[in-house]
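Appendix B, example 12.
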Amino acid sequence: MGIDLRAAQFLVAAKCEGVCFSKTLTLGHQWLMLSSADLRSIFSGLNSVPPENKPGLFADSFLRALGAEELLAMDASTYEQADIIHDLNVPVPDNLKAQFDVVFDGGTMEHVFNYPQAIKNAMEMVKIGGRLMLYFPANNWCGHGFYQFSPELMYRMLSENNGYKMEHVYAHGKGDRWYSVVDPEVVQERVELNRERCTTYLLVQARRTTEKPIFHDLPQQSDYVAKWQIDATYRQRAIGQWIDAHFPEFVGMWLRHGMARLRNSWNHRGTLRYGKHFTPVKLLTK
């Protein structure tokens, strides 16, 4: 786990948006995984001196350069010189709750078996007005840890029900392109990456707005919730209305663009090129 170029760009973009890093907790002691050239490029945009970069160096200086005046690392053991020794599989003590402006996970929680408890711990340790920032594997990472994660999970957990407001969900795959990921509840369908061949990451930023009992109502997948809320009669009527509304659209598509265009559009589904789910964006880094 560590701060590589993706994580660095993500954190710097948050800084440029005004996120306060004054009291920061990292889950796992993050290593600095950047070249000196990358550091110079990133910090030239911030008009500040880049932190020192040496092989085997923790990322503390990088985070301090973003404004972390108090910086702590949490881990289950001392082998990477963590400041707080705690196993995220079990609840954190009350004295750690609502204490941090930023809680950053740069690749820890996919290795924690009791993920619901681990993410609840992270959410509870953020101050009201602070941010939870996550960087984790989303696709083609089978075997890296216990889990890979979906946008659906992030949107359902980091919601108003749990005292959070989602600010960004980004996907990043091969190359330097960033994508904003839509909420499956908004498009009323599953947002999937089942045909993307490259390893893909999700980067999430959410603000804690109020203190609520986290997971008092357990998250449910949005498409199932929608199905549960309609009875069979309404469902049949809704299907008929949908066909009536969209049939002319499909006929028009067929006539205007032909089968090739329709086939190509379908072929992009499940990849980052599917524009209904993934929108290319440029991160603010200056």
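Residues 232-268 form the longest helix (37 residues). The chain has eight helices and eleven strands.
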